[in-house]
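Lab meeting, item 3. Inverse folding demo.
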């Protein structure tokens, strides 16, 4: 099996700890352990935890609390993985074989795109900016969805809320995706790792779980929960498929770390879960207007639609240089790391994270201004 380099992840792994200002992050400022464990009882319980093996599918309490976030799900519908990336990998490894086709939403985090091209054959359908009265939004291009889904389609893959656009599919768009999957008899994988990080709502965006009998949902604690270092993700799926996924997971990392599993169960307790998501929304709601002020200072340079969820904003742009070249210039000359649209299947543009320290972010934006002036843009 040949697999292409995952360009965005390789760029981040090489440079995110070397630059002064990292605007490539897509989550929010991570919690510290002392912010998560706020009582002495919780701390003592963690310190008393034996460092042995956990259940390989995930401890029962953790699976119960994950299932609680998906209406109608039960613990037997859940298996726990090392991050959302392992959840996606395990699902695609289980479902796709040579000769199969997968239809994948673009723009996107291109892990599933690269894996689908390695395991089988990938076709794309797209989000595009559409005007609806006075409002502009990233909308599902139904024509591309119809062309991408064929009788050979085994799997349809979406990310909702989306990375990098921050868009959330409407009820009608969700129905269109389900109808396309049902017409082909395909599985539907919905990566919902940004669910809970809504910018303009106190409620989590709708899940695809429960809309279609062949639905798989992947998620994790890295984005909406502000806990990327725990490396806890999950798959929610029909119980029979969970058994198949578990069989393959036994050949991978087997289980999540014991300490991570305990902290994850604490984070997903219903009251604590709501607190963590409220913290994320406060950060996003506070930071986004300052980023938007900077965007607006550039007039019509950027094609921008405000994100509905997640700690990233995508800025399309018609520039005199490819944005992958601009991103490299920013890294080398200004020690600022951004994600170019070319690494997200989005064409020219920049993905900027705004969920971390906003003063630091604004300093990075000023350095972007400096490079834009250098290439002839005021």
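The presenter then showed the designed sequence:
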């Amino acid at each position: 099996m040949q697999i292409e380099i995952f360009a965005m992840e390789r760029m981040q792994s090489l440079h995110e700890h070397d630059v002064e200002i990292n605007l490539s992050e897509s989550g929010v400022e991570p919690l510290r352990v002392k912010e998560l464990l706020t009582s002495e009882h919780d701390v003592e319980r963690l310190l008393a935890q034996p460092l042995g093996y956990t259940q390989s599918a995930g401890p029962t309490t953790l699976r119960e609390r994950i299932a609680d976030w998906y209406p109608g799900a039960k613990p037997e519908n859940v298996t726990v993985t090392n991050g959302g990336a392992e959840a996606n990998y395990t699902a695609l490894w289980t479902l796709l074989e040579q000769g199969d086709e997968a239809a994948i939403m673009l723009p996107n985090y291109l892990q599933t795109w690269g894996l689908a091209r390695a395991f089988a054959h990938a076709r794309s359908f797209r989000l595009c900016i559409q005007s609806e009265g006075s409002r502009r939004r990233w909308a599902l291009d139904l024509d591309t969805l119809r062309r991408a889904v064929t009788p050979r389609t085994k799997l349809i893959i979406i990310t909702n809320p989306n990375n990098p656009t921050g868009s959330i599919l409407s009820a009608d768009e969700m129905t269109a995706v389900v109808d396309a999957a049902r017409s082909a008899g395909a599985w539907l994988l919905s990566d919902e790792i940004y669910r809970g990080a809504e910018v303009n709502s106190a409620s989590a965006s709708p899940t695809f779980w429960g809309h279609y009998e062949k639905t798989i949902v992947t998620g994790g604690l890295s984005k909406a929960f502000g806990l990327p270092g725990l490396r806890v993700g999950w798959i929610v799926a029909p119980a029979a498929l969970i058994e198949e996924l578990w069989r393959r997971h036994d050949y991978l990392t087997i289980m999540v770390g014991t300490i991570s599993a305990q902290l994850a169960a604490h984070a997903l307790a219903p009251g604590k879960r709501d607190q963590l998501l409220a913290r994320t929304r406060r950060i996003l709601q506070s930071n986004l207007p300052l980023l938007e002020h900077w965007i607006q200072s550039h007039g019509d340079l950027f094609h921008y639609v405000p994100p509905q969820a997640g700690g990233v904003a995508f800025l399309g742009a018609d520039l005199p240089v490819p944005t992958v070249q601009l991103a490299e210039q920013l890294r080398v000359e200004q020690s600022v790391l951004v994600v170019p649209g070319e690494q997200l299947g989005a064409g020219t543009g920049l993905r900027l994270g705004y969920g971390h320290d906003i003063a630091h972010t604004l300093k990075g934006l000023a350095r972007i201004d400096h490079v834009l002036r250098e290439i002839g843009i005021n």
